[in-house]
Amino acid sequence: MYFHTLLTPLLLLLPSFSTAIEILLPLYLYPGQEASAWSNIFSTISTHPSVQFQVVINPNSGPGTTSDLTDENHIAGISKLNSFPNVKTLGYVLTGYGQRDNALVNADVDVYASWSADLRLDGIYFDEVSNDRTQQNYDRMEILSKHARESIEGAWVVFNPGYRAPEPLFAFCDMMVEFEHPLLDYQAEGILEQIPGEYMGKSAVQIIETPEGTDVEGLMVEMEQKGLGAVFFGEDCCYKVWNKELLEKMADAA
User: In sequence order, what are the beta bridge partners of 90?
Assistant: First the structure.
């Protein structure tokens, strides 16, 4: 009893720590010869072993139509990413805002699941998720998520509606992209204030068109203090331009 009495006020004096923010990295850039175009990404991952990266693989707006990944440069790049213990590799799958047939969506997941052991992915990144607040939409995404988890053991599932998702959808994913727009919009709309606290740790923002000189470190400190789950800052609109300095700033601040 005496020990407990002393311990309680001491615990109250200890600072609170939020879970470290992760980097959600949409790697849509072609890897180049022997994955040379991804070398800056490999370097940043390697020099920041305590930072967790969720890397989205997108060979052809999805996996393509064959179960055998035949592009040697993608094989080299994905194998390299899988060698890092602080990386989750995720396969890109389009859902078409509810308009793409479930069978086609599941077929893409099945292709990723069929890749060889050295190319094995850790999960699926569902893009263009509808944020319609309807039971039909909730049921659809539950079905797609369930198939992903049945096809890839222990699959990490990310939904990307691009803007504030209906709360029931959080039950079917591990991470939700709550914002994918330019930095100016992020700052003007106060996005972090719109995300419910109980879902903050499962939420991510992907910021595009980040101007040169942006205080990325300061923004990430605020995000981490709020408990945001993951973030990415991109220089262009479509994740095809990779600024090593910007990538390093993100990793340093995570």
Answer: 56, 123
| Residue 6 pLDDT class (50, 70, 90 cuts) | very low
Place of tokens 């990944």: 69
3-class secondary structure, 140 = helix
The SS3 of residue 95 is coil
> Can you list the alpha helix ranges (DSSP code H) found in the chain?
2-13, 39-47, 72-82, 102-114, 135-151, 183-189, 191-194, 216-226, 244-253
Helices (H), 25-71: 39-47
At residue 207's C-alpha, the angle toward residues 215 and 102, to 5°, is 160
Residues contacting 6, CB < 8 A, separation 6+: none
Q: Judge contact between 30 and 238, C-beta under 8 A.
A: no
Backbone phi, then psi, for 123, in 5-degree steps?
Answer: 175, -165
Sign of CA dihedral 225, 41, 202, 162: positive
Say yes or no to pLDDT of 75 above 50.
Answer: yes
DSSP assigned state of 142: H
SS3 133: coil
63 close to 111: Cβ distance less than 8 angstroms: yes
Of residues 23, 9, 13, 42, the one with CA closest to residue 175 = 23
> What are the pLDDT digits (tens) for 202-230?
999 999 999 999 999 999 999 999 999 99
